[in-house]
Design a protein that fits this description.
Strand order of the largest sheet: 9-8-10-11-12-13
Structural class: alpha/beta
Largest sheet: 6 strands, mixed
Order of helices and strands: EEEEHEEEHHEEHEHEHEEE
Distance between the termini: 70 Å
Number of helices: 6
Radius of gyration: 24 Å
Length: about 300
Amino acid sequence: MGRLSVRRPVLRVTPAGAHRVPDSLAAEEPFELRVGARALAVTMRTPGHDVELAHGFLLTEGVIRAAADVTTARYCGSRDDEGRNTYNVLDVALAAGVAPPEPGVERNFYTTSSCGVCGKASLDAVRLASSFRPAADPVRISTRVLAGLPAALRAGQQVFDTTGGLHAAALFTADGQLLVVREDVGRHNAVDKVLGWALLGGRVPLRGCVLMVSGRASFELVQKAVMAGVPVLAAVSAPSSLAVDLAVESGLTLVGFLRGASMNVYAGAERVLVEQAEPARQPPAAPGTGGRELAGQEKVG
């Protein structure tokens, strides 16, 4: 897995005693995104799929709309103490005619792996206008398909199996076909990597798709889904009140607490087709009972 995980010695304590063993940890390293050699954002991320991360971030920030809006993405010469390239700085060149981020819009803050918008000056700066509003998407999805998404997402979390320390996001079709899974220490980074994958593949806007996330549904994740034209966002945990407000405003279907056949639909319920679970099949009646159960009685011969 390379830089996706690192090995560290730990003291493991169990009822049987204590002993030192190596343990696998999710890798977390700083990532600086530059546009035209000018620093735009710094985030803590799990290395890997950095070009997808950059494209997804620029898409959800409203800088680009298509893969053709970026001409090159190259790593800069960021070096560690031993002179090796860390591959932690990526410089993106925008195509001619694509406006760079306006002066003063740069994220002059440190984006933590737990929250991607902590440093934004105001809520107004977060409410970005999307070119791909999901409200007109006619897609429908059944509760049966939704119920199967968490298990499919979990099955794709290969690094989580080793480290237990990563968030995940995945794209599905409305019939439950898995398109892509990405993992990261930051839930917003995992989503950006998924959306960047879609943008590079010419799939944006993501009509007819479901974005599934392994944690809660924050305002920022709803915003990212809206910016990519995703009509349905599902999460295994709770949404925030602001996330629900934005989903309602944007025509996004928002599903939370998706665990097995149980779920809460917080917005866009008209897209969800409720399929009742089949009743448990009853064993055939004993001969001579006429279909009636002999509850608590012995059958008389």
